[in-house]
Amino acid sequence: MDFKSSDTITGPRTEDHLPHTAQAAAKIVIVGGFGVGKTTMVGSVSEIRPLTTEETMTQAGIGVDDNFGSKSKTATTVAMDFGRISITDQLVLYLFGTPGQERFWFLWNGLFEGALGAVVLVDTRRLEVSFDVMGRLEERNVPFVVAVNDFPDAPRYAIEELRHALDLAEEIPIIRCDARRRASSRDVLMTLMRFLHSLAMSRASA
Which family does it belong to (predicted)? Predict the structure, then answer.
C-alpha cells in the first residue's frame, strides 16, 4: 500500500506511554459475576484510556443470561477489559477484567495465565455467583482478595458475616469499595498487593 505524505499514522497517546521509571509489571485479573462492576472498576482506576469489549445486550440473551439486580444494564463485556495503573514509580499493574456472563467463562483460562493475583468483586444481592468464581481461582492457585461493591440498594452485612457466607479462610482479605471511585478501587488493588507480599514473605520464611 502506498502512503501519501498527507497520511497520518497514529500511535499511543503521550499519556498512555509506559513511565520510564517502570522496572516491574504484574498482571492482575478482576473477576466476578455479571453486573458486579468489573468494567467500572477497570475504567475508574486505569491511568490510560481503558480497552473495553462491551456489546449491546439483545433479545437473544433473554433466558440465557441472569441479569438480576442489573435490569438497567444495556451492555456486557464479551471478551475482556484492559487497563493499567502505576502503584509506584517502579511497579505497574496491568488489569484484565473478565466477562461476567457465564457463557463467556471459557475465556477466563487464557486471562488467568500469568496472573499474579485477582480481585473478586462481589454484589451482596447475588452472593451465590461468587462461589464458582472463587472456585476457578482456587483451581488455578491464583491468590485473591474479595471486594464488596456497595451498590446503593444492596443489603449491607458485617465483614465476618460475609466471610462466613462466602466460606472464606481468615487470611483472605475482604474490603468494601465503590467501583466508581478511583481512590476506592485503588485501595482494593493496594489491599491485594499487600496480601501478595505477605504470602511471598510467608513462603520465604517457610
Answer: Belongs to the GPN-loop GTPase family.
Segment 119-151, tens digit of pLDDT: 999 999 999 989 989 998 999 999 999 999 999
Q: How do 75-77 and 54-56 pair as beta strands?
A: antiparallel
| Of residues 115, 89, 85, the one with CA closest to residue 189 | 85
* 3-39 per-position pLDDT tens digit: 454 444 444 555 566 667 777 889 999 999 888 999 9
Q: Which residue has the cell 501519501?
A: 4
Alpha-carbon gap, residue 108 to 106, rounded angstroms: 5
> CA 101, CA 114: separation in Å to the nearest integer?
22
Which uninterrupted H or E stretch holds 187? helix 182-205
* pTM listed for this prediction: 0.78
